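Appendix B, example 12.
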Amino acid sequence: MITFSVKSDLEDTVSQWARIAGDQMPFATAVALTRTAKAAKEEVERQLPSLIDRPTPYTMRGFRLYPATKTKLLAEVDFRPAFGRGTSARDYLSPLVYGGERKLKAFERSLQRTGLLPSGYAAVPGSAAKTDAYGNMSRGQIVQIVAYFKAFGQQGYSANTTDKRRAAMARGSKRTGARGISYFIGRPGGGRMPLGVWQKTSFGAAGSAIKPIIIFVSLPTYRQQLDVPGIAKRVIAERFADELRRSVTDAKRTAIPKSQMKLI
């Protein structure tokens, strides 16, 4: 996504130090490129909290640095790849960088695949959703909802709630005092309430009550807010020359003379 290479406006700066650094120049250049790329990555991360409400630690680690080497004078900062079945950083951060529609999360894709979430819609926590410190819906409740509507795919089919289990949930338990719980998707109140996933709680003879767990909203479209290329240009202009001078000095100071290398 961001590339720091000597094959650009950095070439003149590098050539100025070539005679001084000698055979240490490739190593010194790689160090300077990596340090500059690291500074750009840190600046991108510094701006994230002003653009995302309560970013999670996972979001703050959404960018990865690929360091340069003396045989590959190229340092890069790119979106961190996904681990396992998680959502990749590219999916949820690229709208900030490039603009465009937010990508669907894994559970949204499950609901949409089974026809529960309309095309062009996203799912956001309702007022009765269980959320964490970052405002995100709890993983446990998401799994419960997806399982209840049998929206897990073939690999997770065994996690889907059986009809027998759904009936038991709706009845509740006199022994434990658990109230009857069921979920439905719709617009309750004669269509006056928003479309989404609603929880119905039974109070026996006292009736029942509903509350919103997930609300379906139009899929958000974002304008570019995180100017990563602009940040990279600014950091290169501010840092690369100084980083190269420092890395050349360090390389020359710590280099092993060739005469000594022959004796090792």
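The radius of gyration is 27 Å. The first strand starts at residue 2 and ends at 5.
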